[in-house]
Amino acid sequence: MPYFDDNPLDKLAVKAGRADAELDLRGLAQTDAMARVERLIDSGGRAQTWLIRFDAAADDGRETLFLPLGRRLLEARRAGRIASCLPASDGAGYYVGFAAPARP
User: Fold for domain 27-97?
Assistant: First the structure.
């Protein structure tokens, strides 16, 4: 496996500063966090781009929201409910894009 001096995801993932709004799920139980994500998806997002933050992995062996949230966001993208989703370069968040509202 090659060794990288820099995180290659930094070039691919969207930076937090580029999001129009942030949904902070840190410190929440998984069921509460996923319920908030569902409300965001259902609302269509009041902003066009969101950064969804969650607790980073710890040494306690517990699952983070990375996989369950990633699966849900991919499902929403396939269903056309969100336009895009990419992991944040630090692995503790997702950048989510909603389609731009139609102009009259």
Answer: Ribosomal Protein S8; Chain: A, domain 1 (3.30.1370)
